[in-house]
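Comment thread on ticket #2218

A.B. wrote:
> Attaching the input chain for the structure job we discussed in standup.
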Amino acid sequence: MLRSNLFRSSCWWLVTLILGWYSLIGRIRTPNSTAHSNVHPSNPPKGEAVLNISSSLPVRILCWVPISTKSKSRAQLIQKTWGKQCDTLLLMSSKADATIPSIGLPVEDSYTTLWGKTYEGLKYIHDHHLNDADWFFKADDDTYVVVDNLRQFLSSYDAALPHLLGSRFAHNRLLKGYFGGGAGYAMTRETVRLFIEYVYDKQFDICISGPNGEEDSYLAMCLEILDVIFGDTRDPNGSERFLQLSLHNLYRPSDYQATLRAFFPSKSGLDCCSNETISFHPVKDEQLLEYHYLVNYRQLGTHK
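C.D. wrote:
> Ran it. Output below, let me know if you need it in another format.
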């Protein structure tokens, strides 16, 4: 019986791996694919993000990634892969390191201080790079981002409005929910400005102060009060573009999906993930190069 169970478990992992690579190679939108549809999966209620279909100007994206002082090799992998496709890439740590290079923030280097790294990172962006981009995308150091898909997706939104976009989850204390930090989230210049002016500069009197805590839900708590527009980032089929969990978990049966506490109904199997996928999380060091190759596989294959 034990051998039988182990055999079935091994087969399940093998099937998941095959399906995952199939999704990466055959389903992800690449620069040679057609642009995504501007049809929203549902009519957004009041306060939801509204698509700006007429926008045709190039979208400038600043990507910023909080890193540990011990993760220099991972930072370099990000620079070699998806990070180089951003218009600006900022790697932020608790200590500046010119060999990466990384920016030093006045926060202790600890996983428990992600909230502090987030608001200090936004402060640095506000003071030094606010006019260098239209959108500011925060990703974890174990995230892979398909920047071309992100750029195409963001081009459909009005960058002059205070938007927040990403993988949206329900929360028992937040009416609008929050966006998972692992999959990354994008905000406009106006969102950054509102956060600094009404939260950071006001000593966090409308939300939670101190460096410790869950950065994604804490950020949502601050921005919800400011009427920032929280978007529905699913594709027209209702599949997720920002993947907060690994492909192995997302492909699992629908009863597992209930544990995600997704803000919108989630799907399982091959329907879980959009063919316009923007981000994958978590991704191990060696997988960053694998994802980068597979995401660009179709584009490379079309060259004669």
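A.B. wrote:
> Thanks. Noting for the ticket: The domain at 59-301 is CATH 3.90.550.50 (Spore Coat Polysaccharide Biosynthesis Protein SpsA; Chain A).
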